[in-house]
Each structure stands twice: as structure tokens, then as C-alpha cells.
Amino acid sequence: MSWIYLLLAGLFEIGFAVGLKYTQGFTRLWPSVGTLVAAAISLWLLTQSLKTLPVGTAYAIWTGIGALGVVTLGVLLFGESMSPARLLCIGLIVAGVVGLKVVSS
């Protein structure tokens, strides 16, 4: 169950980070509310996963899921670059997340 909590925490982390773009410095009410709710849910789910997972592993995977998701949505929603160098870096993040999961089973 801890891995499910961690996966969901990472997904809400993506919502939190992308939501920051829409808040315009927390000057827009509803995007700000949604962003803060996503952040709170993400942190709560992360704390639940930490009941049984090592903190270093869980935190690295949580941030990895967030980074991968935010980069992907940045390309899809905001037209950010998807250069070969960025693809390589994303691949390294994915490899690190998978590696941590494998050695932490």
C-alpha cells in the first residue's frame, strides 16, 4: 500500500507544481486554492508512504515522479522544448526511479 500512496503523492506533486504556473504568483484565487490542496494531499500521501518506506528512497521517487510529470506537461501544455538533451535527462530520472524501486523491494 505504501507504494500506491507514493505513486499518488507523486501525481499530486505534479498537480501542485503545474498549478503554480496558473496561480500567477498566488494572485488568482481558484488556481491558488487548487494548487494548495494538491500540495497538501501530496504531502499527506508522502507521509503515509513513509510509515514503511525509507525516507531517502521515497523522497527521491516522489520528486522523480514530479519532475518527470512536470517536464511532460510543460511540453504538452506550455510548448516547452523536448530536445535530445532533455530526453536523455528524463531517461536518467526514469532509470533512477526504477532503480530505487527495484533495490527497495
Automatic annotation (TrEMBL):
Pfam families: Multi_Drug_Res
Recorded topology in the membrane: Multi-pass membrane protein
GO MF annotation terms: transmembrane transporter activity
InterPro entries for the chain: EmrE-like, Small_drug/metabolite_transptr, Small_multidrug_res
Transmembrane segments: 29-47, 59-79, 85-103
Protein localization: Cell membrane
Top-level taxon: Bacteria
Subcellular location, principal: membrane
Keyword Transmembrane attributed: yes
UniProt keyword terms in alphabetical order: Cell membrane, Membrane, Transmembrane, Transmembrane helix, Transport
Homology family: Belongs to the drug/metabolite transporter (DMT) superfamily. Small multidrug resistance (SMR) (TC 2.A.7.1) family. Gdx/SugE subfamily.
UniProt name for this protein: Guanidinium exporter
Species assigned in the record: Pseudoxanthomonas helianthi
Taxonomic lineage of the native organism: Bacteria, Pseudomonadati, Pseudomonadota, Gammaproteobacteria, Lysobacterales
